[in-house]
């Protein structure tokens, strides 16, 4: 009797994602596993499916999807003892890159069943877990303004297009970050559990998923020049710098709108709510399968 593995996938992810999910099911079957394929049915569905899998005591859950679907699944299994394996089928696949999960489906499947095991921290923003980051202000607005059709058509390039539209479309509110006795203000805040933010770049290159802390980056000035330089340095040099950027580590922080305006929050690239937000760390709360596998 072959070992059984539950696999969650998003049938609405497009033809490319569907092909990769089908290939993952076929590959795992060829490796000798009986795959129970579970399709998501809409927002939040992956969390419900994953929570059921965890409650039934499955030792391993495979997710074939992008960072959004993975985030939903993580919120269903965090702290429950079910390991997570990733078959990256999304646009950026940031978590897979961070963990060294192969982009190739067959190699990712081998990592899922034979890769090393790593216990990682999870961030938590007002009750919602994240593996990568929580952001408030500018980046959450960019995600809100992102055109799904454009994202499917030009993939990564859709984000800078949305960024320009967002920056010139409205005034960016001032945010206040409080971590113990430390207080910082700026127009963009990210509390990161990982080095990567989009692709293989980000504003928190020293972040670790196993140190029990979040790396916090605050962009203190909102002029177009500073905003452009901030993202250019994040992309080209690995770390934004200058007196207009504040960088520190914390295990807990509060983020609020300094002027009382409505400010959106995103976690792992998906909108999750509004400020104020309390952001914390759950140390070693999730076991993941990493590496190339056997």
**Portion in beta strands:** 25-35%
Structural class: alpha+beta
Q: Architecture of the largest domain, CATH level 2? A: Sandwich
Rg calculated over all Cα atoms: 19 Å
CATH topology descriptor of the largest domain: Tumour Suppressor Smad4
Average residue-wise pLDDT: 88
Secondary-structure element series: EHEHEHEHHEEEHHHEEEEHEEEEE
Q: How many domains, as an integer?
A: 2
CATH class of the largest domain: Mainly Beta
- Judging from the principal axes of the Cα atoms, what is the shape? elongated
Main sheet?
6 strands, antiparallel
Could you explain how this protein is built, in words?
- The structure is a single chain.
- By secondary structure, the protein is α+β, with helices and mostly antiparallel strands.
- It has 2 domains: 112 residues, Probable inorganic polyphosphate/atp-NAD kinase, domain 1 (Rossmann fold), CATH 3.40.50.10330; 154 residues, Tumour Suppressor Smad4.
- The chain has 9 helices and 16 strands.
- Helix 1 links the parallel strand 1 and strand 2.
- The chain is elongated.
Which terms summarize this structure?
about 290 residues; alpha+beta; Tumour Suppressor Smad4; 2 domains; six-stranded antiparallel beta sheet
Please describe the topology of this protein:
Blueprint: E1 3-9, H1 15-30, E2 33-39, H2 45-55, E3 60-65, H3 67-77, E4 83-88, H4 94-99, H5 105-114, E5 116-125, E6 128-130, E7 133-137, H6 138-145, H7 148-154, H8 158-169, E8 175-179, E9 182-186, E10 188-192, E11 214-219, H9 224-236, E12 245-250, E13 252-257, E14 264-267, E15 270-274, E16 277-290
Parallel strand pairs: 1-2, 1-3, 3-4
Antiparallel strand pairs: 5-6, 5-16, 7-10, 7-14, 8-9, 8-13, 10-11, 11-12, 13-16, 14-15
Helix pairs in contact: 1-5, 2-3, 6-8
